[in-house]
Amino acid sequence: MYFLFPIIWTIITSLKNEVDAFSMPPKFFFKPTFENYRTVFTKYPFVKYIYNSVVVGISSTLISMMFGVPAAYAFSRFKIKKGDDLAFFILSTRIAPPTLVILPFFLLFSQINLLDTKFALTIVYLTFNLSFVVWIMKQFFDEIPKELDEAAMVDGCSRFQSFWKIVLPLSKSGLSATAILCLITSWNEFLFALVLTGNNAKTLPIAITSFIQFTGTRWGELCAAATVMIIPLIIFGFIIQRRLVSGMTFGAIK
Amino acid sequence: MIQKKDDSLTKTRLNRRPEFGPIWYIMPAIIVLVVINFYPLIRAINLSLYNYNLLKPNRIDFIGIKNFVEVIFNPIAWGALKTTAIFTFGGTIIEIIFGLLLALLFNREFWGKGLVRSLIILPMILSPVAVGLVWRIFYDADAGMVNYFFSLIGLPVRAWLGNITTALPALIATDVWQWTSFCFLVLLAALEGMPIEPYEAAKIDGASVFQSFKFITFPLIKPILVIIFALRMIDSIKMFDLVFIMTNGGPGRATETMNFLIYQTGFRFFHIGKASSQAIILTIIVTVVSLLLLRKFIRMRGAES
């Protein structure tokens, strides 16, 4: 279908050698070669970029989950003073354009010498990941009846135990969907990575742009790099497809 | 008697102070959130009040709201605003229309429906960078797929991204490619959740397909349409990757959205003060737009209940 064509084209082109990739009209029958993949991995420290993306993605997701899930639980179970204001504040982080926060962060990190580190990037990614986790997980926790908590507490559990042993296992699917969505967002993030990283902490989205050089774009290699980048996404997509809409609309639509 | 015993037990258990009050669950998250979000906000406001230019670090003077005034009277800023408006509005409308048409088309059982569903989400979760790169190649004047297919079916061939009139539509087309699936999925879910009875009644009364759509379907999905519209508008305003990768704001300023202008001002020309003020203005615009749109939704929700 129309929607899949560019994706398929990318994968196919990554398997063509340089001559075939450029030829017009496009060759649909050709001898596939892994030459592009070999070049991508040897000419550039591509593995390092993958590693960076993975580390930043996982750590920011982990931290967001660690902080966000308990907070979501509290929002769901307790009546909090000014709870609505807090909720709106969390929602507003999705509305604000990243360009607003990036300038101060850039200055801050350059002043304390943290530019071009994965650590800095992880922290900045918390701006959207953390609020996302809180918002979405609250919806999931809302779906689990409060009576279960209370029943557990009657049986002798402390509040924390009922959270840990009862509610959490029940919300496993929500937890995994949220985590994967955080991973995907971090994986694809471009602007912050562009501004805050140099050669050291470069992540995949930035690395991909380096294939456009003055000597002309090397399509085959570019497609190979792009394919490497989107394969995890395709896998993730299959895993969370059911929860995807709910996640992307911030729970407004289930 | 046993029951009484249980009751008193329950009372004591639930009345006892919990080990971790709600405060402890939330505090860490709130602290992090506040620090991470407020700090940049305050600093950005602070920055916007100075004529801070990274290239001239010794000349940082407090100039109050001069930056803001300058932005308001700057034709370039207005141009960027117009570009942003065309991109966000045009893109969102097209995505919703296509998504709706597709959803109406697919709102029936057929073999492979699950497969279609899982495949159609792919454009949405791909990195905008990758999408931008691939489509940039597609739009290539000499060896791009778009021109190839157009030449096959007799449509005009041109340098899409290099032409002032076609650059922005080309960007919009790419955005549409990526996000129509989103509208499609949401609307499909909405359509699937609709009751059959009104349609059957309408059919009995002799209503045409178009009429049943207009009077039954449309009113029922209006709230969802509003939400999708709001969400896509907000996300489109924030769009950066596509512009950066595909056209870099060009040719000229044809594809320079407000968001991109802020980036240019701040990181190409290093006018941090000016860029901050532009960013604040953009944030205000987005907030106003979202409040307007979502308030309607909240009111609708309230009306239903």
In short:
With 254 residues, chain A is mainly α. Chain A has helices at residues 5-14, 18-22, 35-43, 46-77, 83-95, 98-111, 118-143, 146-154, 159-170, 172-188, 191-196, 204-209, 219-248. Chain A has a domain at 49-207 and 234-248: MetI-like fold, CATH 1.10.3720.
Characterise this structure.
The complex is a heterodimer of chains A (254) and B (305). Chain A has 254 residues and is mainly α. Chain A has 13 helices and no strands. The model of chain A has no long low-confidence stretch (mean pLDDT 75). Chain B has helices spanning 2-15, 22-48, 66-72, 75-106, 113-120, 122-125, 128-138, 145-153, 164-192, 197-204, 209-237, 241-247, 258-268, 272-304. Classes of the chains: A mainly alpha (254), B mainly alpha (305). Chains A and B meet through helix 1, helix 4, helix 5, helix 6 and helix 7 of A and helix 1, helix 2, helix 5, helix 6 and helix 7 of B.
Provide key terms for this protein.
heterodimer; A: 254 residues; mainly alpha; MetI-like fold; 13 helices; globular; B: 305 residues; 2 domains; disordered N terminus; disordered C terminus
Beta strand count of chain A:
0
The portion of residues assigned to helices of chain A is over 70%
Average pLDDT, all residues of chain A: 75
Distance between the termini of chain A: 26 Å
Order of helices and strands of chain B: HHHHHHHHHHHHHH
Quick one: CATH superfamily of the domain at 49-207 and 234-248 in chain A? MetI-like
Q: Give the count of structural domains of chain B.
A: 2
Radius of gyration of chain A: 22 Å
What's the main sheet of chain A like?
none
Q: Tell me the fraction of residues in β-strands of chain B, as a range.
A: under 5%
Task: Write down the CATH topology of the domain at 49-207 and 234-248 in chain A.
Answer: MetI-like fold
CATH architecture label of the largest domain in chain B = Orthogonal Bundle
Strand content of chain A: under 5%
What best-fitting shape of chain B do the alpha-carbon axes yield?
Answer: globular
**How many separate helices of chain B?**
14
CATH class of the domain at 49-207 and 234-248 in chain A: Mainly Alpha
Order of helices and strands of chain A: HHHHHHHHHHHHH
Give the largest interface pair and sizes. A-B, 91 and 82 residues
